[in-house]
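Section 5.1 Outputs to date
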Amino acid sequence: MLTVALLGTLWWRKDFFLLYFFHLSPPSLKPELTELQYERMIVRYTKDQYLKDNIDLIAKRMLNNLFEAEEVVGHQLSGKLQVYLFADWEKKGNFTDDMRISHADSGKSAVYCIMNADWDGVSERMEFKILMQQAHGKPFHDDFDEYIASGLSGTWFQKSLEDWASFLLSRDLAPSFPEMFRDRQYSRFLTHPWNALLARFILQEYGLDALVTFYKSGILPEEYSERWNHWLSRFPVRKIETTRFAPEFQKGITYAYSNSYEGGYATTNSAKSQDELKSIGVQWLASIPYGFMRKSHAELIRFPGNHPAGESDESLWALASDARDRNMKVMLKPQIWIGHVSWPGKIDFDSQEKWDRWMDNYEKWIIHYAIIAELSRADLLCIGTELVQATLKNPERWREMIRKIRNVYHGPLTYAANWGREFEQMQFWDELDYMGLDNYYPVRSIDNDSLNHIQEGFVKQKARIKTCVDRFKKPLLFTEVGFMANSRAGTGPAEYEGTDYDEALQKTCYRFTLETYWNEPWFFGMYWWKWFSDPYDRGKAADPHSPHDRAAEKILAEWYRKDPVHAAK
């Protein structure tokens, strides 16, 4: 089997690049497809019960869609439409390297769709993209053929464009043209529905010829602005009801994405991993999608893209759904990864002008995940992680951004502050529902390994943390806490220098953490760093931080099967 080693900063397809080393193997087995021949199309589908039971109805619907699309575009498809139907994200990702609900390859006249009881990829109408390219060539800019397809179909990502307009306008996420034509810093949940709505507006108000002109050149009709604003005014703007915040104790784990075809969030292996977590009492999962920067002083933040080996937007939906099926909850915790550095605390700029540009881009990036949190019904949103310089140097900008985030996502918010200076000096805890601490304060030195010394270290750590909590009087989460299974567990950053395997010491640090904080009335839970979505990352060979199949897992299960005093009231 061919194994590709990805090292350093590597672009993957269009927007997806990985900034750390791992081995990406192709899927061990691509899904087997059944083929049906029709006069105008060929349908291939995975052997799943839903598709077996409904394939005739789906094929008839696809055929009717094709006839309708040909009439709208004024062009008959050359050759047969190739239709591929997959019952789940994993099968589609393994077959196509693309996790979207639906996509098309115009050169092959092929559409690829998720089809099951919850997701209807056929409704995305990607046959419009194929027909537009056959009739009018490629669009003036990447992705515009898909925007136009959604504009013609009136649907995207399982919502009507009318619903998208109301959703976005109700959250003050109005369109900005022409920036949204090309600026990849904007969320696809802004660019796609707004560009699709603009295409639909042009079709309805000016006709197909004007839409074709827009498709080929990006030229909008003259003096369109007033008519566009009037057209948008018909969509209802709804007041979003918010619920009263009540802190909830969180028995959590950081659920790390396994960068592989068969181990990511949207896989059967991930479902097995979640079953294991459920069995030891875990009730909350922190899902971690990464944004990527080339360097610590780069201003652009890239989204992970659609490949199954990365944290695609669709994989976050899959995880949220799987967690709900197990009565578990999700904290969505987007993080930044920097090429060759990795740690976001090193992001820094030598002028306020550069900081302002980066903060503008960060706001666009985090709004993307606020939209996902709202639509996927995440139970908690963490708005940043260990951005030490960004938070300490730009507190008022963070306050402004939090207000915008709250207008989009209507659940509770936290921020994951780095231990030490960021946690203790941050000025905007009052704007958030939980204080969040990535707790790696050292509790021991490498010169004294006695249990009494380690326990004393935890007592001192708690006193330091409580001083900050008392100042803001907010419930505290450990948005991260963890220890490596080596001889330097508990020494903070010095853990990375440990070489001798020692899961007993890791277990001791787990036990003292739980004993020290569990029943404190201001403490509301933790997310252990980390447990992978691939259940085969376990035991001695697992990631150094993982408790999976190590002695620490038994301690975790012992405590997670009971409630703290203040949560049981």
